[in-house]
Amino acid sequence: MEDVADSMQRILFLSSPSIHRLLNEAWLKSHETPVNVFNILRLGEPKAERNSMLLQWLKYTEMYRSTMGGDAFSTSKTYQFVLDAFPEKLPSQFAELFQLVKRTPDLKNLGGKMQNYLFKSLVDEKFTPETFRGQLGVPGVTPVFELRKDDSVYKALEDFTVFYTVERKL
């Protein structure tokens, strides 16, 4: 019976963006954890609508944290959960995802923190802007100024380069 209820919630969630807030409030009232909501939305399955649904799920994690308290599902736990949920993704793909999160008004702060966690781990793994650039798929012969400034790949490379430079000075 629970599978049927979860499927109905997912269908309702997909049916209309105006329903998102109502479902988020209902899930909060029933104390659904972000992990449960992630599973209800089947975000671990490959789907075309994953990014928009993932953004909505991240909004839910923020609502959950503010309602239940900062330690309920911390930013670092959210970050680690996303990494664990998609083990096939490369760090560069997460960097692009976190750029998308940062461009979402309600999630700008969360996206920045998650990106910093990622960049810290990359610096610890001895990534340089050059190795990160290669993983982003930007050929070494492509001048950086030829990339569009609003492109998520450009922004990820720019943000990592700044982060790397600051970390190296510490």
Q: Which keywords apply here?
A:
single chain; 170 residues; mainly alpha; 2 domains; 9 helices; 0% strand; elongated; signal
Please describe the topology of this protein.
Elements: H1 2-15, H2 17-29, H3 34-40, H4 50-68, H5 75-85, H6 91-102, H7 108-124, H8 129-135, H9 152-169
CA-based gyration radius: 18 Å
Give the helix proportion (percent range).
Answer: 55-70%
Biggest β-sheet, characterized?
none
N to C succession of SSEs: HHHHHHHHH
Strand elements, count: 0
Q: Strand share of the residues?
A: under 5%
Judging from the principal axes of the Cα atoms, what is the shape? elongated
Average of per-residue pLDDT values: 88
Which structural category fits the helices and strands?
Answer: mainly alpha
Distance between the termini: 55 Å
Residue windows where pLDDT falls under 50 for at least 5 positions: none
How many distinct helices?
A: 9
